[in-house]
């Protein structure tokens, strides 16, 4: 086990909202260790981490030269499987190499679609906790969506995507109900080359 002091690398600010828990990126130095960390746990200064209550896997970014990645943030509740297929096939036509989504809970038919695109190598599914810290009634459904907190909860997924896609040239955050289009049908990579 290696212990290092973490520093806040980025803190999400949205309007003047003050949520209970703020989305942040923590960074800690691992320069002087002789092993490759696979898990990380955060504890407050002075507290023991034996064992750490909350541990998460370390994401090591894959380098994809000229890679295009899409962050779909969080999948939850009911997603229409036909719309998902349309969305994934559109990403394939747009020459996307990888889609990352954090999965909380979804309907069985949507999960089948996710498994299919995962098997094809397009989709990387990362876990998102079902029970969120802080208020117990927090979530992403309209009945327990708390605007000041929930935008920060979504930002955690965006930060995770940023870490995962560090080795890609192009990254976009696109929800499952969004399509980036142009008057000419060209891929995302070509769109950016035209803009250069």
Automatic annotation (TrEMBL):
EC number: 2.4.1.-
GO cellular component, one term: membrane
Keyword tags: Glycosyltransferase, Membrane, Transferase, Transmembrane, Transmembrane helix
InterPro entries: Glyco_transf_92
Signal sequence, renumbered to the chain: none
Subcellular compartments: Membrane
Membrane protein topology class: Single-pass membrane protein
Source organism, top-level taxon: Eukaryota
Record-linked Pfam families: Glyco_transf_92 (PF01697)
GO MF assignments: glycosyltransferase activity
Enzyme class: transferase
Family the entry assigns: Belongs to the glycosyltransferase 92 family.
Protein's UniProt name: Glycosyltransferase family 92 protein
Organism: Mytilus coruscus
Lineage: Eukaryota, Metazoa, Spiralia, Lophotrochozoa, Mollusca
